[in-house]
Amino acid sequence: MTNWGRWGADDQAGALNLVDARATLAAAGLVTEGRTISLAQPVGPGAGVPPHRRSPQRFMDRDAGDYAAGARSPDGFRFAEDTVQFGTHSGTHLDALAHTWSGDELYNGHPAASTRSTKGASRCGAEHLRPVAARGVLVDLGVLPARHAVGRAELEAAYPGGVPQPGDVVLIRTGWWESRGGRADYFDDEPGPDDEAARWLAAHDVATVGADNYAVEVQPSAAGTFPVHLELMHRHGVPLLENLDLSVLATTGRTTFLVVVAPIPLAGSTAGPVAPVAIL
Length: 280
Prior knowledge:
CATH topology: Glucose Oxidase, domain 1
Oligomer: single chain
CATH superfamily: Putative cyclase
Largest sheet: 9 strands, mixed
Shape: globular
Low-confidence stretches: none
């Protein structure tokens, strides 16, 4: 069972189709305090990255040193500007459906050959990641030990209400960012959902799954290489929201809320950087 063809042969948005106007209006009704909480990790030159990715860099285009060296400041006006360079999978981001696949096809049967170094992803790229305002659900598992695989039974027992609603944005707190954030081993041996838990989430039509760790899923996995990525993204079109900071949200006692996720629509990219916000 997959979502291929469910929203038409040309679909590139996947499970984000489940967040329609009705779902957004219902989620807006969860706002009772008007309090906003950022769910994003900081990103910049000091942020860590796994070994296969480039570290973020900052280049100052104009700063105080320019004026000390004699740059003009008409009427006393001075300014600073900078350029930041970082990978689309750095920091908090939403994976595009071009990010992962098996065989020769992306999600929905789009050809994997459409993702090339010369043009990027011409199918299922980050420009197809729609902005989402939906019911966010915090599944708080506390601070889990390394390599802890969260199976269906554990996830179901912790899920508020027991069963996901169609269009839910599921945010899984493993405590990994809190215990390993800023350390090199943040990118190794993380706890997270296993393939069985992923199938359960997909069967209940969730729109997005995120976690406070590097890859959302348990690493390493007994079921192969990134099986949760393949189950959710490749087979069901559910994009993954990676590298969240759920520590503040966990202190509020709220498990359901309005969540807003607006990815940068980088045409042809394999992810869209985001700064998700929970609105209580």
